[in-house]
Please model this.
Amino acid sequence: MNAKTMERTEKRLVMIGNGMAGMKAIEEILKLAPSTYDITIFGADRHPNYNRVLLSRVLAGEMAAKDITLNNEDWYRERGITLHLGKEVSEIWRGQRRVVASGGVYADYDRLVIATGSSAVILNIPGQELENVLTFRDISDCERIKEASRRFKRAAVIGGGLLGLEAAGGLVDLGMDVTVIHDQMHLMNMQLDKTAGEMLKASLEKRGIKFRLSTITTEILGDGSVGGLRFSDGSAIGCDVVIQAVGIRPNKTLAERANLYCNRGVVVNDYMQTLTDPSIYAVGECTEHRGKTYGLIAPLFEQARILAYHITGHGFKSYRGSVVSSKLKVSGVDVFSAGELKGASPEDEIYYTDRGGGVYKKLVLRDGKVSGAILFGDTNDCTRFFQMMQDEVDVRGERPALLFGNPMSGDTGHSGPASISMMAPSTVVCGCNGVTKKEIVDSIAEGGLTTRHDVTKKTKAGGSCGGCIPLIEELLVSVLGSSFMQRTKGEPICDCAELTHEEVKKEIRTSRLTTVRRAMEVMGWKGEGCGTCRPAINYYVQMTWPGEAKDDPFSRHVNERLHANIQKEGTFSVIPRIYGGAATPDELMRLAGTAKKYNVRAVKITGGQRIALLGIRKEDLRSVWGELGMKSGYAYAKALRTVKTCVGNDWCRFGTQDSMGLGITLEKILEGVLTPAKVKLSVSGCPRNCAESSIKDLGIVGIEGGWEVYIAGCAGVKARVSDLLCAVSGREEVIEIAMAYLEFYREDARYGERTSAWVKRVGLERIKKSVVDDAGERRRLKERMDECLRKRKEDPWEGPDSEEVFSAPIEITPYGGP
Amino acid sequence: MIFYRVCKITDIPVMGSRIVNLGPESAALFRLYDGSVLAIENACPHKGGPLSEGIVSGNSVICPMHNTRVDLRDGTVEGPDTGSVRTYEVKIEGEEVWIRL
Ligand code: SRM
Ligand SMILES: Cc1cc2nc3c(=O)[nH]c(=O)nc-3n(C[C@H](O)[C@H](O)[C@H](O)COP(=O)(O)OP(=O)(O)OC[C@H]3O[C@@H](n4cnc5c(N)ncnc54)[C@H](O)[C@@H]3O)c2cc1C
Ligand code: SF4
Ligand code: FES
Model:
């Protein structure tokens, strides 16, 4: 095989280890550059790559070993990968760039990846040689444990961490009498504090597991086969099977023997290359990065992606370490933990304890941000908190409600039990696409899916309005435990590039990119972009370089390309501006006249205080606009939509301010400015708030002697009540703050992110600081908004739009005969 | 089925489309970034959405109604959706685009 591969023009990539991290790296490499490498993989295990995370389900009998295979042998064959199963690599000859495995098989490499994972730690105590002293690491361990459970009744698990408890849970399900021995004072001491550890113990005791805490095992007793355990206090228990789950140790011997620098694991740089030899990479549990080793899937997959990027010469991403979370996968017990367990001082900790109800929640804060979370009994908020940690959301303003915020509140269209675990399998999770809980769970378990994006791609759930995304994330957590990858912080725009929204924006600015096409070229896009990334880039270039960047109509949804909303039968709606909801009789007459002339199928007062003409044909759009002589209401765009006003102090007996006047002024100033998502405003004349400022992206409420400014409200898929940004006395100040706030939003938010989601993510404090507290910054923001307004497009219903997007169908008349 | 001359290649915007109607039949002609022209039936297998108004991405078009992704080369739909649309043969002679309907 050596001679054969030498002739190829491809480079030779050899991987040692056929486990989860290594195979993820191979999948990513194939995605990025399918033909760069001729790939050879060695796996000591006899099984092709499988999902180790689900071993506890196999143990518990919920799944069969074959159900957890991730890549079967056909998979390797179809991709032309040479796979040596059951072949353990024993040598790396760096001089010759060759690896040698058992049975004399060898392979030469140009690039080598070490992905040897880790092994269970074996205690240094007498009795290890006895029969039925087992570990819990791979499929054969699982088979041995199940086999033993058929013959014996009593099991002891040494180690009260995640793995030990999952093993204990499985053994109880197999009908065994189980005792867990743990040397610390409380269970899962790496992930939980004392209270949570104690509650966990109580709850597992109810499931029938017995515990010996603060107990050090000194000897495994028995004659040929296990008979019991002895402890340091001299006491002993009887048992027939022992499972050691006291930790894992990175498999680094091979690397050490090849003189690659190792510490606790094989030490790698931020691109996953070994420090000693740049042609050798390492990934997974066997590695040590910035002094840390990882034993959970999420960070390992992240490493695998970075490795793939580097080894194929794509992009410039580096690995900077991960925040990890863990969730115990024992049925009937909900425990979640992430980040720091303790605050620097008691002031940095927030608790909720209900021992009777079996619920405990703790948040650890650092510099106003969530740095750790422990949830017991009710883990519904785990994705929310973990997201806050990843996004480094400033939560100071939300402190009082942090532990009580139910992520489901305000959701429409998928109400039902608040807890995903209580939902029936047939419950529809994604109301837009009609995808049930069962379909999602099956796709996760069987398809080896690990991200929300994977689930959406496979099932469509979460791909439309997005309201069910938190539920999908919960399902991922409940099926996969902590291996569910929270990638939000580093989440790429889409599958076409491994870049985040933030990285894309930065590159557009630093490299002065002014067209979608050029931006994709410079940033090494795969292919021509898709319906997700191209519209985003199109927005970012125009936001960053107003007037200079070129709009690409074919990177826009049809609504924005044609300046009208497409409707059911392929017709369109026309909604002109009616500033502040106040129409003139002239306008109404023109609306009525046009509706009659074009025989418009329906005329409707919209929820946004304007009038819609529905069912217009594409070819009539431009004449309808012309006839109306009104400006576009942008009801189709990611831009300013409506400014809802109440009648205000000109008419209303309670009115304290001229809400209609201010609303109309704001609408005239801001119309036509592009935003990351649609923006809705309102102005009410008094705190009775008839214009509903509490659910608008920007809501203004008149008070005696001034105005209150509210931001980030929303009444759509995920309702959110707005936050008070500030109170000011003059109209001009309101206008300046409104402009600065919206400019900040334009620049900072991700494409498609409404103000409600954005403010929730970045924190109210940050916005207050720039828009209210710092007058200089506010002025600069307003100036940038002024600049953008000067360069904004003419009214799209009037301006010379590219003819080609409106071109009429070509009608063909059939020839007389064939 | 015979070839009809429909338009000049430059009459179709790059990454955009033109509709061709022959009696009740409606085809959407797409001009891809690489210059090739492909034609499919202009009705989405999901609920009949006008594929001509979709965003072109690689060799596919994304239906503007509910994001079904249709392969312009063979008219098949990408999973998890199912179904397919007709494809039409296109030839280019000089500047002229011909379609077989
Ligand atoms: C016409 C109108 C309904 C009506 O008959 O009243 C309407 C119609 C549509 N809305 Fe709406 N929305 C209309 C007011 C609203 C309101 C109420 C309001 O603005 O006061 C809301 C909730 C308030 C809010 O946005 O916070 C609303 C929340 C949505 C949402 C959910 C947005 C969200 O972030 O959660 C969508 C979906 C989206 O934008 O992705 C949506 C999307 C749509 C689209 C554009 C669906 C689409 O993409 O094709 C509908 C177009 C129908 C058509 O045939 O033209 N519409 N929509 C209203 C137009 C107001 C206007 O004058 O411009
Ligand atoms: C029971 C159990 C439950 C778990 N639950 C979770 C969970 O809920 N969430 C979570 O995030 N993580 C969980 N984990 C941890 C997760 O499975 C591991 O972090 C992950 O599998 C490690 O991936 P890896 O590729 O680094 O190592 P592995 O998957 O162990 O792969 C290493 C591979 O290398 C092979 N190998 C080693 N040396 C050689 C050699 N010299 N030559 C050839 N091949 C070699 C091995 O045979 C093995 O197949 C669990 C682990 C176990 C055991
Ligand atoms: S108008 Fe809005 S609420 Fe009504 S059907 Fe359309 S998107 Fe849904
Ligand atoms: S009509 Fe095309 S996706 Fe629904």
Notes: The CA atoms of residues 187 and 201 of chain A lie 7 Å apart. DSSP finds 24 helices and 39 strands in chain A. The pocket of flavin-adenine dinucleotide (ligand 2) is lined by residues A 16-22, 42-45, 52-53, 55-56, 88-89, 115-117, 136-137, 163, 166, 251, 254, 284-285, 295-298, 300, 329, 481-483 (CB under 6 Å). The interface with chain B takes residues 433, 458-460, 463-464, 527-531, 534-535, 553-559, 561-562, 566, 570, 802, 804-805, 807, 809-812, 814-815, 818 of chain A (CB under 8 Å).
